[in-house]
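REVIEWER CHECKLIST
Item 1: Sequence provided? yes
Item 2: Single chain? yes
Item 3: Sequence as submitted:
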Amino acid sequence: MTGDSAPTNLTHHFLIAMPGLEDGLFSKSVVYLCEHSPRGALGLIINKPADIDMTALFGKVDLPLQRQDLAKQAVFQGGPLHEERGFVLHEPVFASADRPEESLYASTMVIPGGLEMTTSRDVLEAIASGAGPRKVLVSLGYSSWGEGQLESEIKENSWLTVDAQNSIIFDAPIAERYDQALALLGVQAWMISPHAGSA
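Item 4: Structure as written out by the authors:
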């Protein structure tokens, strides 16, 4: 790392795949970064639906889904790692008002910027029963980068980065999430050359 650049923390940012990134799952992907530190990064792809919806997923884990608002919602391919495991990105749910730093669920990562990512079954049980967080994105699998790996991919022009916007994660139509994430940078897809280079 050069002396003139401080390490950048991209937690609660979107990674937006550049057109030249043609790696299957990551092609035209938007990744929400749950964690970024000198040790590496962890994120969930938010615009690649899996071939299963929430009703089917909850049926597979023997939890009949009582939330009609989520019944037809897509489950996402969060990344190529641990695709058999569920990752629930959601609005914060606090154990109590006087201890907002503690989540209600057994295994939750609190993400600076206002979201949480839970991997324990208790969040699924809460959602199935009609409770739980109101806004959720459920993915199978996650994306991960080792120490320095993401930084070098960004230097190689594989990714653009921008502060994440929760409305894109939870509310935007899936097919529009890539373009909406680019729009946060004031960019449209046609403006980005797949052949990055220097003049």
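Item 5: Key structural point noted by reviewer: The radius of gyration is 17 Å.
Item 6: Recommendation: ____
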